[in-house]
Design brief:
13 helices; 45% strand; mainly beta; Phage tail protein beta-alpha-beta fold; 5-stranded mixed sheet; membrane; globular; Immunoglobulin-like; single chain; iron transport; 1133 residues; siderophore uptake transmembrane transporter activity
């Protein structure tokens, strides 16, 4: 009953919201500013304004001492007070989102300007070619001679003959240029990301001054994300945020990416951060069916986001920053703010396009000396060619004429690199057009994006269409409205199959002497499967896999919000928002049915088969927040917010499998003679929440934030479904404090801040984990009831994560150098996990147990190493170190270790032991060794092994956790030319190469070049007999390499990669003035150019066989490393 009541509450909340909108108290008035003062300073005026309003000011401290004449304003607007105070001072201002930015006049100059005055005109743009509005343009040394740029970035200024012009703008580096007699001077200004007054987007979309935050937030602007035109938001984030790690499946276009921030905290793969787009929770689920035995990775839902629409991304790390977002934010938040329209004359029209080509880079290291065959140890005593052998243990490829598998006779030679020759050169092009406009009270922006990608995998394609509209208006001084709708369609065809039955696994087996072109005829006139080994299920023709096993998926998505804001006063307002996220995904896979011995259900599938499923997902969030922010005294400022949220989710999935198609290639359900399988599934979940926070600031250098939230979850039992969690964050700007008591830091120290925070957050579980249920399964024409094999638990409690954080931010040499250091420690207890259970629960039982800790440091360094009139060199560095450790599992259930990759029959398992680091790699078969560590061989000269789980689990062969992740990003700017790069690095951690192990077993891996050719292909395995004697027994090379164990294929996963490179040029407006184009930037872009350092055998040290928890520990049949090159164009009209 309680669950039903919880589900009905969205109607009540929506009704309350409608009432709120209709009955808005329009009689409330906005407070006006009263200011009557004799001569004073600008700093005193600002304090007075702040005490009467909720406006924040950002300006150089030197401006505070600017003298201001007497002012007498009664119930005036902010603009009227500022105009009166700044009259004749040469100081300009800009108001945005209740923030006032003050721009200083030009710097003083001791020498006298002389010479004939002349008029200089030009355009000021940013690094992307976007016009900058309101840039302060000043004659150096003359504060009364200045202007600002118009809506198109244009300016006109009278300048003495030998005068210099100073260009200054909030958030950008000032530029001082000398016209040298030129009448046209165009300027490209570079962002100053190290400004003390930096404003970032935080929880609930609230803009806060970064120096007042007590926790770590890292923000990326759109130009940082889109430097190389990456169509994936997640891929564009990689290497740019300290502490953010990605597990990316190497499976082609749009492959899934799992993101973790500050390590894994959950033992059930619930480690993903929450995605928020313009205040709307955005589901980043994956419908991947991939596993060791096949399936397809259909990518992450974040692929639906158009990167060109993004203004900025704030990464809120851990519970400390994300406490206000509730249980789903326990792993951090990726907070995306999209672009909006701004005030301008006419429409702002922009176009961006990217054209890129992708090619295979490196592949698994293979030998090219030997061909198909086996080693005859009885009669010939040598390597023997045999066209029917599946192994590559044959003789040296000598070019002699031999009969091949298909009956043809041709040279016994090496016919290329199969892992490269099979693939195509991929081509992608993306286009985005946006139109925006705004006035003092209204704004809108609409955009249309199209992306079309052909992958390196033959016949693979991925396309995306995006349409976005956001608009807002002030109805009057009390009420404003804002809304957004975003639509997308993402469609993929023929994504590569995973694992054993995928094309890459098959390519790794083909002998050097087999011609790949001969396999393109993959079936004969009877539709029988044609392959170099004959038609078998275990070894398949890679072109059969390509053409006969096809798939497609398509996702339609709509998300958006409508919000209303009511201003009771200048410092108190109420906002209400209704947000939604809906998508429909359709997945189809087909099997053309050409005969393969060993196909499942061959008696049921006499011709073709098709599987189709469809999922409908919907989430809504209704939210009301009361916010206040006021300067109570000259020294004390108080802000608060209190609100409630109702979240509701619904998912429905239908699936059907048919066979015996009437018309070959006509993939329609009503063209099938056989209904093979059918399924229907779904869930509902809801969460009610109330939350609040208080922000207290003293003299702009001491800030304390307190938050609290309580969630009620429908997925937990009624006695445990309510969980409360608080947070506290303290920021102390040491430099400002010392300056206020006249004891400033040395002049070379520009800024110093210390911060502390503590937070707690709860996590619920997925729906329907409380009670056991029955379901019905229709398979091969038979309907049968089935029951769960996992014992549910109606006493589950929420997981509780507690986190502590301390940090230090320092800036030096007038912001030319700075760093941000963070230490954190988190503990997650009451883990919701499965443990073994007695019969009949073969799948185990759910319990609350286990504790995981994460401890680490993050370090961000940013610097401007060189800065001259025409040239600048910036260098940014991100570093992070994290240790995830399992303190305990379930000792009361006698569980002291567990595995995570149970679905794949690999020779290794990934798991953890109580008291040890998370992510250990265990070999299920280890060499048997004596007390000296020598390998013991049997009477046949082959190594003996240990396969007992209780033994190998205590002898891990590696661990996936890196010791250090790091990125280095240098940027060089010379006039209109910008060169930037991103080096992505990881040091430590291990990876097991199952790809190389298989290739070694069949004689194709490079390490098998040493096969004892000079000794009739006989070798001796290094070791001792059981009696302790040195082994001298000879075995064939194929036996030798076939007896190697997993520990021989474990590699250091460290790497240094040149991930991004771009070289761009922004054309000066003088070259464009006779065209309709007012800005143009063209760039050469490249992604994933090369590994500068790695230890794996040609394969990527980042690859994983799928995207499940810790699958990055295993490399198996992954798509080879690819590199991308292209051009990017940005136009403004």
């Amino acid at each position: 009953m309680k669950g039903n009541q919880l589900m009905r509450k969205p109607k009540l909340l929506r009704a309350l919201l409608i009432l709120l909108f209709v009955a808005a108290p329009m009689q409330w008035t906005r407070a006006q500013i009263v200011l009557s003062t004799p001569k004073t300073t600008l700093g005193a005026v600002i304090k007075n304004i702040k005490s009467q309003s909720n406006y924040q000011f950002f300006y150089d401290d030197k401006l505070a001492e600017t003298p201001v004449n007497a002012i007498d304003v009664k119930n005036g607007s902010l603009q009227s007070v500022l105009d009166a105070a700044l009259q004749g001072k040469g100081i300009t201002y800009k108001i945005e989102d209740n923030i006032v930015y003050l721009s200083a006049p030009g710097e003083p100059q001791t020498s006298q300007q002389t010479g004939q005055e002349h008029t200089v005109t030009g355009t000021v743009v940013d690094a992307t070619g976007e016009a900058l509005i309101g840039v302060n343009v000043q004659v150096k040394g003359n504060p009364t001679a200045g202007t600002i740029t118009d809506f198109e970035g244009n300016y006109s200024l009278s300048v003495p003959g030998n005068g210099e012009i100073v260009f200054s703008y909030i958030g950008y580096r000032s530029e001082t240029l000398k016209p040298d007699g030129k009448n046209v001077l165009n300027v490209t200004m570079q962002e100053d990301t190290q400004q003390i007054g930096e404003v970032v987007v935080t929880a609930l979309g609230i803009k806060r001054e970064k120096k007042m935050l007590g926790y770590a937030v890292q923000e990326l602007k759109s130009d940082e994300l889109n430097k190389t035109g990456d169509p994936s938001v997640t891929s564009a984030l990689q290497g740019k945020v300290a502490g953010l790690q990605m597990n990316t499946s190497a499976t082609g276009l749009g492959g899934s990416t799992k993101i973790t921030i500050r390590g894994n905290s959950s033992l059930t793969d619930n480690n993903q951060p929450l995605w928020i787009v313009d205040g709307v929770p955005f589901s980043d689920t994956s419908t991947s069916s991939a596993s060791r035995y096949g399936g397809v990775d259909r990518g992450s839902a974040s692929m639906d986001i158009n990167p060109d629409d993004i203004e900025s991304i704030s990464v809120l790390k851990g519970p400390n920053a994300a406490a206000l977002y509730g249980s789903r934010a326990g792993n951090g938040v990726i907070l995306i703010t999209t672009k909006k329209g701004s005030k301008k004359d006419g429409f702002g029209i922009r176009y961006s396009g990217n054209f890129t080509w992708t090619a295979i880079g490196e592949t698994l290291d293979m030998q090219r000396r030997y061909g198909q065959g086996h080693i005859d140890t009885k009669d010939a005593k040598t390597a023997v060619y045999d066209k029917t052998d599946s192994g590559s243990w044959g003789p040296v490829l000598d070019g002699s004429m031999k009969e091949a598998w298909n009956g043809e006779t041709y040279a016994y030679s090496n016919y290329g690199d199969k892992l490269k020759d099979y693939f195509d050169t991929g081509f992608s092009h993306t286009h985005n057009v946006s139109i925006s406009n705004g006035t003092e009270k209204s704004h809108f922006r609409t955009s249309f994006g199209y992306s079309d990608n052909d992958g390196v995998f033959p016949t693979e394609s991925l396309s995306r269409v995006n349409a976005d509209l956001n608009a807002g208006t002030e109805l009057n001084k009390w009420v404003s409205m804002d809304g957004k709708i975003s639509l997308s369609r993402t469609k993929a065809d023929n994504r590569p199959l995973y694992g054993d039955y995928g094309a890459i696994s098959q390519l790794m087996r083909i002998p050097n002497n087999v011609r790949l072109d001969d396999l393109k005829q993959y079936s004969d006139e009877t539709h029988a499967h044609v392959n170099w080994t004959g038609p078998t299920a275990s070894i398949r023709n890679p072109y059969y896999v390509l053409h006969q096993r096809q798939n497609s998926d398509e996702r339609w998505r709509a998300f958006g919000y409508y919000s209303m804001k009511i201003n009771f006063t200048d410092w108190l307002h109420l906002s209400a928002k209704y947000a939604f996220d809906y998508y429909r995904t359709r997945v189809q896979s087909t099997n053309a049915g050409d005969g393969i011995n060993g196909e499942a259900n061959t008696s049921m599938i006499t011709n073709d088969s098709m599987d189709r499923s469809e999922e409908n997902f919907f989430e809504s969030n209704a939210e009301v927040i009361l916010m206040g922010d006021r300067q109570l005294t000259d020294n004390f400022r108080l802000g608060f917010n209190v609100g409630g949220n109702f979240m509701y989710q619904r998912s429905e999935t239908l699936g059907v499998g048919v066979g015996n198609m009437v018309d070959k290639g006509n993939w329609m359900l009503n063209a099938a003679n056989l209904l093979r399988t059918g399924s229907e599934d779904g869930y509902k979940r809801a969460m009610n929440s109330v939350f609040g926070s208080v922000q207290m600031a003293w003299k702009e250098y001491l800030s304390l934030d307190l938050t609290a939230r309580n969630d009620w979850s429908s997925t937990l039992p009624s006695g445990n479904n309510s969980f409360f969690y608080p947070s506290a964050n303290l920021s102390f700007v040491v430099s400002d404090f010392l300056r206020s008591i006249d004891k400033p830091l040395p002049s070379w120290v520009t800024f110093a801040k210390a911060r502390l925070s503590a937070a707690q957050v709860g996590k619920d579980t997925s729906p329907y984990q409380l009670y056991n249920t029955y379901s019905f399964k229709f398979d091969n024409g038979v309907l049968t009831p089935t029951k769960d094999n996992v014992k549910m638990n109606d006493q589950l409690k929420p997981e509780i994560a507690t986190s502590y954080e301390a940090g230090l931010d320092m800036k030096f040499l007038n912001n030319r150098l700075g760093f941000d250091f963070t230490y954190y420690y988190s503990k997650t207890k009451n883990q919701i996990m499965k443990v073994p259970a007695a019969a009949p629960w073969s799948g185990g039982q759910w319990v609350n147990a286990g504790m995981v800790t994460n401890q680490g440091v993050e370090f961000m360094l940013y610097s401007t190493l060189v800065e001259t009139k025409d040239f600048a060199f910036d260098l940014n560095v991100n570093m992070a170190h994290n240790v995830s450790k399992v303190k305990e599992l379930a000792p009361e259930e006698n569980v002291n270790y567990m595995f995570f990759n149970g679905d794949g029959n690999f020779p290794v398992k990934v798991g953890t032991r109580a008291g040890h680091k998370l992510g250990e790699i265990y070999a299920t078969s280890l060499y048997k060794r004596n007390e000296n560590g020598d390998i013991i061989v049997n009477e046949n000269g082959l190594p003996m092994t240990v396969t007992n789980e209780s033994e190998y689990v205590n002898k891990p062969i590696g661990n996936i956790q890196p010791k250090l992740t790091m990125s280095v990003s240098p940027t060089f700017t010379y006039k209109g030319i910008t060169l930037s790069a991103l080096f992505d690095m990881k040091f430590g951690g291990d990876i097991f190469s199952y790809s190389e192990m298989l290739a070694t077993g069949n004689g194709l891996a490079k390490r098998t070049l040493n096969r004892g050719e000079e000794n009739n292909y006989m070798m001796v395995f290094p070791g001792v007999t059981e009696s302790g004697e040195v082994n001298t027994k000879q075995v064939s090379a194929s036996e030798y390499y076939g007896s190697l164990q997993a520990e021989d294929f474990i590699y250091d996963a460290s790497f240094i990669k040149l991930k991004e490179l771009s070289i761009g040029y922004s054309f000066p407006s003088s070259m464009l003035k006779k065209t309709p184009v007012n800005s143009l930037n063209v760039s050469f872009v490249a992604r994933n150019l090369c590994y500068l350092m790695k230890h794996t055998p040609g394969t990527s040290p980042e690859g994983g066989y799928d995207t499940t928890m810790f699958s990055q520990a295993i490399d198996y049949a992954s798509l080879p490393f690819t590199r991308t090159f292209g051009i990017s164009i940005n136009l403004g009209f």
